Structure prediction request, 737 residues.
Amino acid sequence: MNIAQLFRDYFVKNGIGLGTFLLVAVLFWVVILIILPQLSMLDFSFRHHLPPPEMGGPKDTYTIEHYKYLVLGAPGADTSYNVVDLGVFGRTLLAAFFVTILDLILCYPLAYYLGQSKGGGFIRLLVLLLIIPYWINEILRAFAFRIIFGDSGLINEVMLTMGLISDPIDFIRANVALYAGLGYAYILLMIFPIYNVIESLDRNQIEAARDMGASWWRIHWRVVIPYAKPGISSGCTMVFMLSAGALAAPQILGGPSSLWFTQIIYQWFNTGGNWPRGAAFAVVLLVACIVIVLGMMRLFKVKIGDIGK
Amino acid sequence: MRTNSLLPRLLIGAYLVVFFGYLLGPLIVMSITAFNSPSFPKMTPWECLTFEWFDVLARDERILTGIENSLIVGVGTVILSVIMGLSGALMLTQIWPKLRATYYTIVIAPILIPGVVLGISTLVFWDRISIMLGMSTGGILHNGIFLTILGQSTFIASYCMLVFIARLQRFDTGLTEAALDLGATPVQAFRKILLPFMKPAIGSAAVLAFLASFENYNTTTFTFGKFPTLTIELAQKVRYGINPSISALAFIIIVLTIIGALIHEIYRRRQQLALANGAPVAAVSGGFQLPKIFRGNPAAIILVLLALGGASTIWFSQSYSPGVCKMDVREQKRLIQEERIKEIRAKRQLELQQKQLKSPDSSGDIKSDAPVTQSPGKGAFGNVFDPGNLDKAAPKSETEKPAESPGKGAFGDVFAPKNLDKATPKDD
Prediction:
């Protein structure tokens, strides 16, 4: 079947008007909203930082100075590598990984419990309770954690009153608040993919394993987890990407000495005023996330089609 | 079965409590702070029940404009995302099979791309376009609302598409084919058969899109320009000085969310009941039968209780004035402060006596006062307190505290000799 034939069939089936409309809408989305902006960001990241009138002029040539800056730092700096930015970059990815693991440990038991129970009012109530926090604004959720973990926050006040500590503990500086807030923000994206998969697991398989004398952790390791793998990897992918790309929670809950990589990008776009450099950093973040996620998928043998199910 | 023995059940119960405590605790704490009177959102110490933060919120111009902008952006995003998402889902069923996997990867990617990257790429792309077209910076391509709608729709359309795909999987394409065979035009078949079938999915996709747009921060923060949405305003407020009016807003949002969720739950339950009884959905969802809803429907009861609670709160807020309580608290604070001042004065008196006692017999002590400024806490006062005339506890805390944070806390301040003269006139 050649392409011309395909188009003819398409227009016969949908009619000229409707067919054109669908095609235009999809092309607008795919080309103008998704592909071209990404390419233009990539292109922009290789440009010099110029004032607007000089853009497109003779000085507007390609350069890799922004990528060089990320790796080597400003020319003439004391260190041979850009320790600050690279450190933040590594720390962000590491912390996002940590948050992902935290969420997985926290969510797997509940997803299993919800998926294997026979339904009913109580389970429905639990699902409802799960969904409600997700519709509260991200900023407000972070704000709630600041009320709890702040210097004169709930935990410190309670512990001071009970005499457990004599000075308030700085949870914000220790990043406890940040990890708690980030883990909280994406809990639902971890739970539902796993829950959906486990729900379709035939209970007889578990019964059979138990009858054969398998211990409970063996049942999980050999039966439930292999079956739930697409859900687990889908949830992990989403949580990892979202926490690595989070901006609100680090801005509100991050300690004064610890930056998130997105915050550096944000600074280049706002106070820093160097857009191409910000774009270059954003490209690096995007590429790193894609590489890590593809690597994980290869490692666990899952396809991209499983994501979003 | 495993769950029948006591220990696992207890463990599961404990786990559920911890999990939902983590999930709901912050929201509850935040809601409570909306009713406490200190100007920094706190739950403890509880001071006065107050409703003034709702007043403060209602008078906040920036929040109100933010809500307005959010609504405009939300409506635009809903329209654009639903259209693109539906087209995208329909296209997936018709596209050349060899292209399908690539196409799916491209349209699902915006969900996985960090929101920050989407915002930046939108901003950069349209900026370049406007430079290429030679447009001024005030043009539509620099309009915050236009850019925000485009940026948000990029990934919200993917969410919508997932909803539509799920619904389309249950669509019987034979229906459309039959209509076409019977002489309907493709547009007629689309409008009369596919669209009615997709209607529930369109509804839920629209709600999803609106909520996602309303709470989006990462993308919007790069594109909003001169039109900050509510989320942007909130972020600015939270980052630079906070007061409980934000808690008040959170409380309102939480209550609205709960009401929305409960209404949805009731609706779904009625539909399920109808389907179970074999009746068409329209027949049941037509009239509002009050008594039947309450029977065995905890959601409805909670909703009514909530409404009653809300009404009584409003009534209470009109009859109750927190002024008296606030005066009390202020009075109490004053008393505590006075107490503290007295304590300090007594301590200082003691200290002076010590000095007077000591200084005659060893003039070296006065000299040793000098290095205090360099290392407070370890110098002169260690000497003064050394003889052990005072009880052990007091000098201990005095010598430790300044070492960590000089000048912090009431006593650390006062005992630094530099501040002695400074503090005296205040006390008198």
Chain B touches chain A through 92 residues (CB under 8 Å). Chain B has four domains: 2-51, 54-243, 247-320, 323-427.
